[in-house]
Design a protein that fits this description.
This protein is α+β, with helices and mostly antiparallel strands. The chain has one domain (14-137). 11% of the residues lie in helices and 26% in strands. It has three helices and ten strands, in the order ααβββαβββββββ. The protein has helices at 2-9, 19-22, 59-63; strands spanning 23-29, 32-37, 44-46, 73-74, 83-87, 93-97, 100-101, 121-122, 125-130, 136-137. Strands 3, 8, 9 and 10 form a four-stranded antiparallel sheet that branches. It has a three-stranded mixed sheet with strand order 2-1-4. Strands 5-6-7 form a three-stranded antiparallel sheet, with no helix packed on it. A hairpin with a 2-residue loop joins strand 6 (93-97) and strand 7 (100-101). The longest helix has 8 residues, at 2-9.
Length: 155
């Protein structure tokens, strides 16, 4: 009975996602080569985060779910040495890249190829996709679909 209670209690909380075993890789987009999860979903950094620590929780984490997982792995084009984790306020481990906690944007949905969160200014800061060096990719046309005529990534 105690085990059941612990399992049920552990199921609550934010909408964080462990996205395909917390694999981080690069994919081609109209923004250049950017970080995505193992399923091709776009990953973002939040300018308001400081010293590798997430400042996004509550309503922010509902809109910008963190990429979580204790042992992230590097996919194609990603520097495995730059992947790490940071402990969130709720105790979960959030994946970081070059010190930036990584997030999804709820408005992108679950399909690969969308970057509607690019350049948005919400919850006290701007949100950007990342390049292979862990730098913010700042586009002139933020909030647009990525990719060519198919609206997705060109692998």
């Amino acid at each position: 009975m105690l085990v059941l209670v612990l399992v049920v209690a552990g199921c609550g909380g934010s909408k964080s996602s462990s996205g395909s075993g917390s694999t981080v890789k690069l994919a081609s987009s109209n923004l250049g080569r950017i970080l995505v999860d193992g399923s091709g979903r776009t990953l973002y950094l939040f300018e308001a985060d400081t010293n590798g620590t997430s400042t996004c929780s509550g309503a922010c984490a509902s809109t910008w779910p963190p990429l979580t997982g204790a042992s992230p792995s590097a996919g194609s084009g990603v520097d495995g040495g730059a992947l790490a984790t940071t402990k969130r306020a709720d105790g979960t481990q959030q994946v970081t890249y070059h010190g930036h906690p990584l997030y999804y944007y709820d408005g992108d949905g679950s399909s690969a190829g969308s970057a509607k969160g690019e350049g948005l200014n919400t919850f006290g800061g701007k949100w950007y996709v990342l390049d292979a060096a862990g730098k913010a990719v700042q586009s002139a046309g933020s909030g647009s679909e990525m990719g060519g005529s198919g609206g997705g990534y060109g692998y």
